[in-house]
Structures are given as structure tokens and as C-alpha cells.
């Protein structure tokens, strides 16, 4: 059985819409666990009343993304899950999303799978996975390389984000859970899928499964939207900072080939120090 784990903190309207999209799936062969980390907008009570099929676990507000999904994964495994999917609450699943993820998961039972992301407002594809080069520190975005005819089925990538990430249970047995001690929020998903790939588990984007996302609602975008000294500090050092130097250092030391660590760190630090001001 597939268990879908959704960590949330406030933003009840997004959570409602996400859960409603899961209700409208063409398959019902899954269960949903929401980890409500200290919401103050009545999330837990609303879900108990409106989505009785959803199991709600609660935190004290200090779990952040990584520890939140780990709480849900532990419960899913206790309940006998053979696959777990992490999903953000600010996404909408296309009606065939789960069915198409299960279709390919049944054919590649050891693979970690992500989905093609589309802008929720325009339905234009915006993320289809990437291949990362540690030497140049550049990302090859598959959406820019694949023809429309090629944008179907599975495509191998270096890592995957945690929004719509399907993980077979055997991966947890081999790798463990997400690294909540060193990567409490950002990069934990990229780190986990990179580690799993190095352990021999394939990592693919599934172009047949579609998620609708809101790119401007990510914590990184909100921090950068109004540039300021405080925002710059949060960008580099805050738990929700997309350029967090500590998180990047941990990620690089864990995943970069050792001979390339010095150049990759220098390149990455430079990009993070100046990227906040260059990003539009």
C-alpha cells in the first residue's frame, strides 16, 4: 500500500485543495497522513471534520519539513506501507497522478520517482528534473533538452525534490530516513535521493504523472521577493533560507565526489553569496 505523507504548517486553504485533488484520483489504492506541525489556523480540527479518511499527526511547530516527513514516514512504515510518497500541501495532483506513479513504480519497484510539474495557473511545464555536474556546478534541465515527443515515461536525474516523491520501503531499510539533524528544511530531499542513487536505487522523473504547483509560494521565493539585509541574512543562514551555507556544505560533503569538493564548495558559496541579488 502506498502512503502519502504531507507536512503542513498553517495555509489551510492549500491543504484543503491538495487533499481534495487526492480525493479525485482515478485510483483509491493509497492512504494519506498529514503531519500538522503546530498550525495556528485550525488545520487539525478542520481536517478531522472534513477529511476523515486522512490520519493527522501533530507536532509542536519545530519539526520543519524534514522532521515532519520523517514523523509521517515512521507511521506509514508502522502501518505496513510498501511505498511512501512525500507531498507538499501547496500542490494539486492531476486526477491520474497517483495511478501513473503506481504504474511505473510497479515496473521499477526499486526506483524513486518524481513527477512533471506544471504551473497551477497556466498548466505550462516548469520542472522536469535535472542532471547536475559537480565540476561546473551547472544543472542541465531536462525540459529544455527533451522534445515534446520525448516528454513521456521515465527519465533519469541526479536528484529529486520532495513534492511528489515516491520512495519504495526498501530504500528506507537501506538508507534510513531523511537527514533531519543536518538538513532540517531545504536540500534534505535532494540529499536523500542523491544518497539513494549512490546506493544503487534508480532516480527518475515520471513525465506521465503531473503535479500542479505554485512556484511563487516557496519559502525561497518569498525570502527573495523583498530584498533586504534581513532577507539576505535569512537566505544564507535561516532554516528556510534557500541559500543556507551550512546546509549546502553538508550536502556537498555528503554527495560530491571527494576530489571535487574544494572547487564545488567555492563555486557554490560564490553563487549563494551573490545569487540573492541577481535572482529575479
From TrEMBL:
Keywords: Glycosyltransferase, Transferase. Residues 4-110 form the Glycosyltransferase 2-like domain. Coiled coil: none annotated. SUPFAM superfamilies: Nucleotide-diphospho-sugar transferases. Pfam families: Glycos_transf_2 (PF00535). InterPro entries: Glyco_trans_2-like, Nucleotide-diphossugar_trans. The keyword Cell division does not apply. Signal peptide: none annotated. Belongs to the glycosyltransferase 2 family. This is Glycosyltransferase 2-like domain-containing protein. It comes from Hymenobacter koreensis.
Amino acid at each position: 500500500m502506498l502512503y502519502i505523507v504531507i507536512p503542513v504548517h498553517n495555509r489551510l486553504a492549500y491543504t484543503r485543495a491538495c487533499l481534495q485533488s487526492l480525493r479525485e484520483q482515478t485510483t483509491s489504492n493509497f492512504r494519506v497522513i498529514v503531519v500538522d506541525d503546530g498550525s495556528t489556523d485550525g488545520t487539525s480540527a478542520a481536517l478531522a471534520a472534513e477529511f476523515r479518511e486522512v490520519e493527522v499527526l501533530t507536532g509542536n511547530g519545530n519539526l520543519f519539513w524534514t522532521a515532519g516527513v520523517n514523523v509521517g514516514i515512521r507511521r506509514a512504515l508502522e502501518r505496513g506501507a510498501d511505498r511512501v510518497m512525500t507531498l507538499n500541501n501547496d500542490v494539486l495532483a492531476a486526477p491520474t497522478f497517483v495511478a501513473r506513479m503506481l504504474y511505473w513504480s510497479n515496473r521499477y519497484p526499486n526506483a524513486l520517482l518524481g513527477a512533471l510539474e506544471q504551473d497551477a495557473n497556466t498548466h505550462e511545464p516548469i520542472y522536469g528534473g535535472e542532471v547536475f555536474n559537480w565540476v561546473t556546478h551547472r544543472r542541465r534541465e531536462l525540459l529544455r533538452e527533451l522534445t515534446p515527443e520525448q516528454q513521456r515515461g521515465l527519465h533519469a536525474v541526479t536528484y529529486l525534490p520532495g513534492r511528489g516523491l515516491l520512495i519504495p520501503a526498501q530504500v528506507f531499510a537501506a538508507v534510513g530516513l531523511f537527514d533531519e539533524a543536518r538538513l532540517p528544511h531545504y536540500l534534505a530531499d535532494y540529499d536523500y535521493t542523491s544518497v539513494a542513487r549512490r546506493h544503487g536505487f534508480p532516480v527518475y522523473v515520471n513525465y506521465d504523472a503531473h503535479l500542479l504547483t505554485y512556484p511563487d509560494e516557496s519559502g525561497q521565493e518569498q525570502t527573495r521577493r523583498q530584498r533586504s539585509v534581513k532577507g539576505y541574512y535569512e537566505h544564507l543562514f535561516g532554516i528556510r533560507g534557500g541559500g543556507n551555507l551550512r546546509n549546502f556544505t553538508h550536502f556537498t560533503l555528503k554527495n560530491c565526489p571527494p576530489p571535487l569538493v574544494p572547487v564545488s564548495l567555492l563555486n557554490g558559496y560564490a553563487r549563494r553569496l551573490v545569487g540573492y541579488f541577481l535572482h529575479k
